[in-house]
Amino acid sequence: MEEYLRNGIISTAAHTIVLPISYLMESCFPQHKLKPGNYDNITTLLMTITRLLNDLQSYQKEREQGKINSVLLNMRSHCSFKIEDSIAYIEKIIESKRREFVECVLMDELSDLPKPCKDIHMSFCKVFYMFFNKKNRYDSDTEMLQDIKKALYDPVNIRRLS
């Protein structure tokens, strides 16, 4: 599983989105954090969470294609596991990684990244949760159209409490 995640997190490309934005937004972004293998813990956690969220939604498709992902790999490693057991196990890992990620975002001593960079990481984590909430909406041409329309075109309705 460790080897799979070490290789699989790269394919999410989360780092290729969040790091250049962080670098361009924050002049004091540490350049050495842009190099592969030298990512800040918060970036690695974002990549891991994204990979595992995607795996939860794509294991059926990948099984049909003869590919492996963390859900299927975990089932192989634990012969007594059914698919539901493996999914529950991966969900626990995601929750653990998410807690660790939030701690890194909120606690200054856990990451030397500037606050705006941490905020970018947090924003993208939310986006990836949206992509992979209940099903793989990232691979769909139509799944997120309502969300996009709501975000870009529909006016915000703010109710004030009197």
Automatic annotation (TrEMBL):
Keywords in alphabetical order: Metal-binding
Superkingdom of source: Eukaryota
Pfam families, per database record: Terpene_synth_C (PF03936)
Species in which this protein is naturally found: Brassica oleracea var. oleracea
InterPro entries reported for this sequence: Isoprenoid_synthase_dom_sf, Terpene_synthase-like, Terpene_synthase_metal-bd
Domain annotation Terpene synthase metal-binding: ranges: 1-100
Protein name: Terpene synthase metal-binding domain-containing protein
GO MF: magnesium ion binding; terpene synthase activity
Record-level GO BP terms: diterpenoid biosynthetic process
